[in-house]
Amino acid sequence: MMALATPQIDFAAIEARERVSTKKKWPSLIVAALVSMIWVVPFYYMAVSIFKTHPEYTANNPLSLPEGLSPIIDNAISAWNTAKMGMGLANSAMYGLIGAALAVFFAAMAAYGLSRIDFKRQNFWFMLIFSGTIFPFQIYLIPLFFAYQKVGIINTHFGMLLFYTAVCIPFPVLVLRNYLNGLSREMDEAARMDGASEFRVFWSIILPNCIGPMTATFLLQFTWIWNDLLFSTVLGNRDDVRSIMNSLQIFHGSYTTAGPNLSLTAALIASLPAIVLFLLLRRHFMEGMRVTGL
Amino acid sequence: MEATHISRFGVGDKVKQETDIQLMERIGWHQVKAVEDRAMRRNFWKAFAFMSPAIVLVCGLLLMPVVYNIYFSFTKWKKFAGLDEFAGLSNYAKLPGNPYFDEAFYNTAIWVAASVVFPLAIGFGLAVFLRGVPMGNIFKNIIFLPRILAPTAVAVIWFHVYAPHGVLNSLLGMAAGRPVDIGWLYQDNTVTPAIIATFVWQSVGLVMVLVLLGLSAIPKDPLEAARIDGATSGQVFRHIVMPLLLPTLVVVTILSVLSGFTTFDLLWVMGVGYPGQRTLSLAVYMYFESFQKGAWAFGSAIAVIIGIVVFSVTWIQTVMQSRVDKMTR
Amino acid sequence: MNFKTKLFSLAFAGLMSVSVVSAYAGDVTLVHDKPFWAEALQKVADAETKATGVPMKQNPYSPPEQYKAYMQSSIAANDPPDIFTWWTGGVYEELIKTGAIADLDDVWVDLIKSGEFSEGVRDFYKVGDHIYGVPLHLSRWIVLYNKADYAKAGISEPKDWAEFVANAEKLKAAGITPFVATTQDGWRGFIWFEEIMLRTNPEAYMGLHTGKVTYDSEPVRNAFKIWADWYAKGYFSDPRSTEEVADFAKNKGAMNLIGDWAIGLVEKAGMKPGTDFGAFIMPNMDAAMPSSTILEGSPIMLSVKGKAKPEVVNALKYFVSVDGANVWAAASGNALGNAKANPPNDIVKKINADVAAMKTVSFPRWWEAVPADLQGELVAELNRFMLTPTMETAESVMANAQKLNAAHWADKQ
């Protein structure tokens, strides 16, 4: 932070200047609108295509308005059944909710151990856990693929949950540990002197105070799990275990004969939960960005 | 512990110069330390109990695989056989000069560079530009929206945008007045730029939001004061805004580099029609070698190479970041 | 809801979901990688369930490389699926060498005795002294043609090569694109390559697969010259299309060189076999050479563990029985070589008659015959040619293909 000598500032004049400058910026509004078109067009394209039948789609310009609204029902039913989206959505929901929740909980426990209890070589243990994030995913694929086969958990819900939980632990540990380091120790010292066990201190005092960063990291990790394609393809590719993105990719890859209107409908169905979540919890998402130390 | 401090108890005229060892014995330092050590050890096990689920999961599913991957890369493992045959460095020797590997390496370098530079430049520009635009929040939300979509969904949408009879060609056709039929995802010189464009489309929103957060965290007073002092906007920007933003930008860069190396979803879904799909990046090449050809040992070697490259780049960046931190302190 | 309650309900939900027992235990499950046949296979499975009382299901995997990886790893873990589909050729032999596959000699004794299958079909699945598979489908690669287009151009089924090429020119003159050919799904690049090789130099075609003929030799170059020439004349439709069947059904081209399993798909897309479209076997360049066709016959195989279960063997037997074959033919338009079953459609009936009349010889498909390691990379090179079909690309494709080919055969020494 720079310390500057601040002479008397005429706030009123500044405000007046700001208001005037905003008014002059209407042309920039038009520019902004044009620029944001680049982001709007693909969404618009998706929106009009899901209402078209396949012949209708091929006959007209891809950006043309649909002739009617009824095809969406057929498209949705077709995509849902052929791509087994119900199964995919349920699987991803389960993996995301349980995996992210468990990961954040275990991370909170580890962060508590790392920041609230004094012991030697804390940094070593922290780096051990955090080193889970520094390797590119490719390096996990082959060993996990074969280990899962050997142990018999490949293509199982349990196997997927196990992996998702493990991979979502390191980052929350970083965030929560930093956060806990900033929390004052008075409360837990008091509780400890009152005779509370470590676990009680953790459960009743620390956890409730971490709801903010825990929710933020939960949302981030839930989104990561929801979006995963690679690990579901490699570790859980059976049709009753697949994640939603895996189902979407298979649908898009093998059924491209079915037409863009179907693939786009499927993409929309697969994305709806994330969009809804975002709109409802926008604040927490932004909080998530902030809290992760950026 | 060879301490060099003087005994605290030597005050006044009768300063008694005792050695550190005598002092420690007098105050019972060793006994205190022994008690403390026991407490620390007890604490360690308490802490370990809290850390154990995390440690077990991370070691078992993330760290052990790395060790095994390195081991596999030194075997002759292929398809159904050869796991126990030692191959020395032969898998690695096969890499340089292999046309697919070379091309994948080159494309990955392009990807990483592009995935750092473009989102940063465009995101930054948009942030600065949209700050002063009325109703700016609407535009910011629109540009951020793609970020919450999964890369797979974005890839499916853009696959059709780039299709020969898709959105881009029809827009170009309307502009040019005649039908445009470019196979964006099928040609050597357009496939990587096209997919990079999609990547930028999706990630710009995040950079923009982060820069906006950074910009709004800069207190207005110094800016106003500087302007009153006669500084031009350019100078204000260069000397006040940028240094305060630098930490944010550095972190964004590090994240972009890592994601540039491991991008898989976009390339796998959008590159499906491109014959040279396996060369689009090292990550995709590794997948094809391992899972399409069953060359497990070779694939492991590629994964190790990716790991080493990522490591080095991240290490360089972390060093740079600590330097930046020192600069802005 | 306070935090503790949230936590416990999540944990409870987790335990509940993890304890869900797989619905596949106890059933016979056919594992395969052809999702476009999932519905049809389920119909056969349902008929089998009715016939034998043991529930049968089918489980599709996608994409094929994930399916192959799944098979490799499940064999490595000593837990292969009981009954599954595969391919013939190099990957067939690889799988058999692992020792995890059961031989089906006893099943075949019955099949031959009943007169339902010929020894020729049986030997298609022989490796060494034993037979390891039964047909999932036996398909010949033929040229489907749009009858309306032929009428418009005033042409009929070609009797020889000259007529075949002349027909293409007449179609072009009538404003119709002669051939539909795409790179859809990434595997189709070899289709025209193998056909042109077969028609011009079958010996060289077979030599490619044993390493005796190189990919940059004259026979291959000649094939590419013909292929590139036809592209230059505008005989082919847009290769980038991702909907080959739909393209043919919508008349983006008059002919489609494909396996006869596509007849069912074209019918679903709206053309009636026999009335709207027909088929013929492409003639050879040299009329003196015997009539030949590419034959494709994906096998159904049993693992050793699967063969030990009587319900699995019964499911297999049902599939290739007359009843099973008829259900399969009706559901998918595929034949599997059972002489006593109904031909799935008029076109196959007609081709069968042609084959008998011309004493057509069968050749293996490039996809199976090529060494397994080279399959993915070589077909990618052929796709590359289709997207930029010039002789310049052809030379580079041939050079790359030969480099890989040479490295493979050198390794084998």
Q: Can you give the mean pLDDT of chain C?
A: 88
Largest sheet of chain A: none
N-end to C-end Cα span of chain A: 16 Å
Number of DSSP helices of chain A?
16
CATH topology of chain A: MetI-like fold
Weakly predicted, low-confidence segments of chain A: 1-9
Query: Strand content of the residues of chain C, in percent?
Result: 5-15%
The low-pLDDT segments of chain C are 14-25
Q: Cα distance, first to last residue of chain C?
A: 70 Å
Descriptive keywords:
heterotrimer; A: about 290 residues; mainly alpha; MetI-like fold; 16 helices; about 0% strand; globular; disordered N terminus; B: about 325 residues; 13 helices
What is the topology?
The complex is a heterotrimer of chains A (294), B (329) and C (413).
Chain A: H1 11-23, H2 26-49, H3 54-59, H4 71-82, H5 85-116, H6 122-130, H7 138-151, H8 157-167, H9 170-181, H10 186-193, H11 198-209, H12 211-227, H13 230-235, H14 244-254, H15 260-280, H16 282-291
Chain B: H1 20-26, H2 29-72, H3 90-93, H4 99-131, H5 136-144, H6 151-161, H7 167-176, H8 188-217, H9 220-228, H10 233-262, H11 265-270, H12 282-292, H13 296-328
Helix pairs in contact in B: 4-8, 4-10, 4-12, 5-8, 8-10, 9-10, 10-13, 12-13
Chain C: H1 3-18, E1 28-32, H2 38-52, E2 56-60, H3 64-76, E3 83-85, H4 90-97, H5 105-113, H6 119-124, E4 126-127, E5 130-131, E6 134-135, E7 139-146, H7 147-153, H8 161-173, E8 179-180, H9 190-200, H10 202-210, H11 218-232, H12 244-249, E9 255-259, H13 262-268, E10 277-280, E11 292-296, E12 299-302, H14 304-307, H15 310-320, H16 322-332, H17 346-358, E13 361-364, H18 366-369, H19 372-387, H20 391-412
Parallel strand pairs in C: 1-2, 1-3, 8-9, 11-13
Antiparallel strand pairs in C: 3-12, 4-5, 6-12, 7-9, 7-10, 7-11
Written overview of the protein:
The complex is a heterotrimer of chains A (294), B (329) and C (413). Chain A has a single domain (82-291), classed as MetI-like fold, CATH 1.10.3720.10. Helix content of chain A is 74%, strand content 0%. Chain A has 16 helices and no strands. Chain B has 329 residues and is an all-alpha fold. Chain B has 2 domains: 20-72, no CATH class; 90-328, MetI-like fold, CATH 1.10.3720.10. Chain B contains 13 helices and no strands. Chain B has helices at residues 20-26, 29-72, 90-93, 99-131, 136-144, 151-161, 167-176, 188-217, 220-228, 233-262, 265-270, 282-292, 296-328. In chain B, helix 4 (99-131) packs across helix 12 (282-292) and helix 5 packs across helix 8 (188-217). The radius of gyration of chain B is 29 Å and the shape is flat. With 413 residues, chain C is an alpha/beta fold. Chain C has 2 domains: 23-138 and 297-339, 3-Layer(aba) Sandwich (D-Maltodextrin-Binding Protein, domain 2); 140-295 and 365-412, Periplasmic binding protein-like II (D-Maltodextrin-Binding Protein, domain 2, 3-Layer(aba) Sandwich). Helix content of chain C is 52%, strand content 12%. In chain C, strand 1 (28-32), helix 2 (38-52) and strand 2 form a beta-alpha-beta unit. Residues 14-25 of chain C have low confidence and may be disordered. Classes of the chains: A mainly alpha (294), B mainly alpha (329), C alpha/beta (413). Chains in contact: A-B, A-C, B-C. The interface between B and C is medium-sized, with 22 and 28 residues.
